[in-house]
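Lecture 7 notes: from sequence to structure.
We start with the chain below.
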Amino acid sequence: MSAWYVFTTLGFYPVDPASGIYILGSPLMDKVTLKLDSKFYQGRSFTVVARNNSANNPYIQSATLNGKPITRSWISHAEIAGGGKLVLTMGPTPNKTFGSAPADRPPGI
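Predicted structure tokens for the same chain:
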């Protein structure tokens, strides 16, 4: 459970560790950078930024990955390992369209 908690505080967590799929959630921190070991990962770091982050804004309104908008509710291990930046814009009510399309749902779930 402690590993799940650490992932969740970052704003994503592995729904099934063998799948390489991470579900997006509500980060506790406004910004966090993971340093990636260059021996194993091509990216040097992966940063998560939570805009408008607060206890009153727990819902993802929109997201970008490396500057490109994404509407899906998940990211892959390969995307994290490639390095870059995930920006989550948070708000007070659920954005019912974010991640709701069948194509935006995690594969295999």
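Points to note: Residues 2-10 form the longest helix (9 residues). Residues 2-104 form a domain with the GH92 mannosidase fold fold (CATH 3.30.2080.10).
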